[in-house]
Every structure is written in structure tokens, then in C-alpha cells.
What we know:
Blueprint: H1 2-27, E1 32-48, E2 51-66, H2 90-118, E3 120-124, E4 134-140, E5 155-161, E6 164-167, H3 171-180, E7 186-192, E8 195-201, E9 204-205, E10 215-216, E11 219-227, H4 231-262, H5 273-285, H6 288-306, H7 314-327, H8 333-364
Antiparallel strand pairs: 1-2, 3-11, 4-5, 4-11, 5-6, 5-7, 7-8, 9-10
Helix pairs in contact: 1-2, 1-5, 2-4, 2-6, 2-7, 4-6, 5-6
Amino acid sequence: MSIILFLLxxxxxxxxHEWGHFxxxxxxxxxVDEFGIGFPPKMYGIKxxxxxxxFNALPIGGFVRIYGENLEEIPDxxxxxxxxxxxxxxxxxxxxxxxGVAMNVIFAWFLxxxxxxxxxxTAVDESQASxxxxxxxxxxxxxxxxxxxxxxxxxxxxxxxxNDELLNPKxxxxxxxxxxxxxxxxxxxxxxxxxxxxVEVKPIKGLIAGQEERAxxxxxxxxxxxxxxxxxxxxxxxxxxxxxxLKNITIGLWTLLAGAFTGEADLSQVAGPVGIxxxxxxxxxxxxxxxxxxxxxISLNLAIINLLPIPALDGGRLVFxxxxxxxxxxxxxxxxxxxxxxxxxxxxxxxxxVTYNDIVRIFTN
Length: 365
């Protein structure tokens, strides 16, 4: 199921990206020969006007085939040469290349908007929590009794000590219960995504700095409930979330790339296709809002990565367009092809490395 969800998310995000290229190419007067849904081999196609809309066997995205990206291959007497990608003004070429990235950002904003309207799980003060609020584990101390027994994001359903049981606890009632039964073994029931379980733990002292005599189990807790925004609130908040996401992803990617040049890159923090499959499944276990939020974050990641000035990516092609605009002459297609091949090879190498790390993590966890 996780693999199917991953392919569906990938399909939608790539299709959104390619639709951006497609619609701007049309609007700037370029001839678009094909808009493909999925990747070849082709199953069938429908021609509408000058564009063929093809449906292909591999449902992992889509593509746009714009006429005349290499002008040298087009005879001078070809009537449509003026509508070729390479014949259009540099600003139009740049807009087409940026459009895919822009659509990924807009799509992420739209998904955030939907999640805020549906209701986003939000930490609330215990005194202001509604009856629908539930207690979640927001973190744990590394060497605490509950470390790795109950993961962050788990809902605490109840805590029991002997015949005494506390249902639907709050942070204060949970803490008081632990203090009252500091010398006993506690049984904590929890829900994590689609899974549920029960763990036994004995409180210990000295976990909390400055409160060495206080018994604790070593988790931080928060009351969480779905908070629905008005349309205006959701509209503005989704802009803020999108902006913060772009900033954080850019900083993270810059740190990773800088570390790669110094040999200090931490690839353990990078997920490849195998890792993302598991993350999509985990997000789906937490419900629709979590899945939509995760999809929005992946969409922002694709936008930032595609802007990298690496040949074979939109950012690399933008660099080519900028060079041609400055020099006022086209880049040699043979050299452009070689650079694109090198860029593609580097991307594939990075994909192999992060996939290897994903597999290692699976077998070592």
C-alpha cells in the first residue's frame, strides 16, 4: 500500500510540474507537440489541435515535448520554426523553465490551504483544550525509560498502575499519576498511526534537571486537537507555511551541499525513494491531513531541487538560457548535451547513495 501511495504522490507532483511547463509554453506562443501522462511505452493518444495528449504505460509522472529545443535540427524553411522553443525570446524560455517549479510551490500552498480548512492538528493549552483534544507524546529524553518504546506522535490512551487506571489523561493528570505511583510499574496504552500497543515502565528519579527527587518516565507531552481556520485565516496561514517551508528546505539543502564539498555531509538525514515510500505510508497512517501535508512538503522539496544550477535540471537549463542571453548566441548543442549527461549521471549517483543509506537504515533499525 505504501508503494502505491508513493507512486500516486509522485505521479501527481510530476504531472503538476509538467503542466506548468505546458501551459506557459502555450501562452508564450511555443508549439507543444505532446503532453504525456505517464512515461512510454505509449498506450494511446488523443490529438487536440496541434498537441497530442498521450496516455502511457508507466504511471510515474508525465512529460511535455516542446517543439524545437535544438534549433540546428530545424530547416530554415520550416514554417513553424518561429514557434520553436529556441526561437522564442529568452524571457519566454526562462518563464517556461520556471513554470514547473512555480506550479510545485502553488500546489504546495493549495494543499496547505486545504489542510487548514479541514483542520490541522495543533498543540493547545490544557486549560483551553476542548473535550476532543487528546494527549500526544511530543518528544522523549534519550536515556529515559520510554525512549524508543513510545515514539513521538503517539497518542496516550491510558496509564495504569495495579487497579488504578487513568483514562484520557492530560499533561497534568498524567504527571500527577506518575508521582502518585512512583514506586510502581506503570502500564501505558498508546496509539501510533494505525498501530496500538501497551508498554510497561517504571518511573525513575534524576531525569529532570533541577528536580532530581521527582520521578518521571522521560517524555514531553502536549494536548493536540484539530483546529479549523476560517477561509481568510487558512488563506494567509498557508502562505506563511509555504514561505517557511521554502526557507527551511533551502537552508537544509545548502547545508547538505556545503557539507558535501568539505566531506562533512550527513547523508543519514537524507531520504531517497525507499525512505520516502515508508514516510508516505507513515503519513497515511495518521490520516488525510498528514498525507496532504507530507505531499506539500515533498512538492516544495522538488521545487527547490529543480532550481539547482545542475545540467539536466530546470535550474541548469536556466543557466544555459542566461548565458545565451548575455553572449547573444546559442550554446553548442553537443556541449549542452554532454553537460546534461554529466548532470544526470551525478543525480543518479546521488540517488544510488541515498537509496543505499535507506536500505542500511531499514536493516539496522
